């Protein structure tokens, strides 16, 4: 079944488009964290970040950076969250690669809150060894 983003790309569902090229589109998120919250969406449907080629990610990041600059310039954003939810366990709802670009304002209270853990003993060293590239 086609994702909502495939339907948007095909023009079957309306969207407010900020950018389009052969690799991706950028649109306004329908339920913004702050107004102007944008999504950079790959034209090809990669279900997750993990599935996408580096060239596509790199190109989409370049577009995200332009949106970040525009949000600062035009909306007066003090900062942005550039986010990719990667697989359902992380909160990804639409299985089609997209980057969130969320304009943020000092004191807007919208920061997502992660509960944090602590390493005990040699755990940090062990994780470091496991994850070392
Ligand atoms: P994620 O949880 O990372 O998969 O984010 C999916 C995002 O898509 C959510 O922030 C939704 O608000 C947004 N979204 C879902 N449907 C639409 C739509 N028709 N137009 C624009 N944004 C949408």
From TrEMBL:
GO terms for molecular function: catalytic activity. It comes from the Bacteria. SUPFAM superfamilies: HIT-like. The active site is at 98 (tele-amp-histidine intermediate). Residues 4-111 form the HIT domain. Gene3D superfamilies: HIT-like. It holds the Pfam family HIT. A motif (Histidine triad motif) lies at residues 96-100. InterPro entries: Histidine_triad_CS, Histidine_triad_HIT, HIT-like, HIT-like_sf. GO terms for biological process: nucleotide metabolic process. This is HIT family protein.
